[in-house]
């Protein structure tokens, strides 16, 4: 596929994004079984919920109610590589469908939330794998990063 990519996210194209992303997740050998084990018979509830979730993050709409941390706590066998795969698949799906400036509006929260899910799962001294750190650079290479060096303190001049 490569029709023109969206410049502006809206409820309709977010719905298409969510369904396309979870099609890829379900077909993926690493992620598919993890999701299917939990969501078997419940995909029809999960997907509309994820549309509301992304619409609330990207469009500022109010519809999503839930606790993202809590939903992931019971997942068995999830390792850092699952998060890396999730982020890669999501990035590919987003970048296929949106212009770069719009893609960043999805990827920034995705990376931030993935980071916080990993820290609570693997412990506060866990280091986010470099391949995940590199993803944001891939779509937004010119943006200053939060962890970029600041002016050195203690320098009197
Ligand atoms: C290794 C990566 C991930 C896996 C395997 C995973 C798996 C799942 C599963 C199985 C559920 C359904 C839980 C249930 O209803 O019982 C779920 C829910 C959800 N996931 Fe993930 N997830 C991952 C990463 C993420 C990331 C990075 C985000 C956000 C950017 C996210 C956002 C959500 C949200 C919003 C829900 C719905 C929570 C609710 O019930 O309100 N997930 N996830």
UniProtKB/TrEMBL annotation:
InterPro entries xrefs: Globin-like_sf (IPR009050), Globin/Proto (IPR012292)
A molecular function (GO) term: oxygen binding
Stretches with biased composition (Basic and acidic residues): 139-157
Superkingdom assignment: Bacteria
Region of interest: Disordered: 137-157
Protein name: Globin
Species per Swiss-Prot/TrEMBL record: Trinickia dabaoshanensis
Lineage, opening ranks: Bacteria, Pseudomonadati, Pseudomonadota, Betaproteobacteria, Burkholderiales
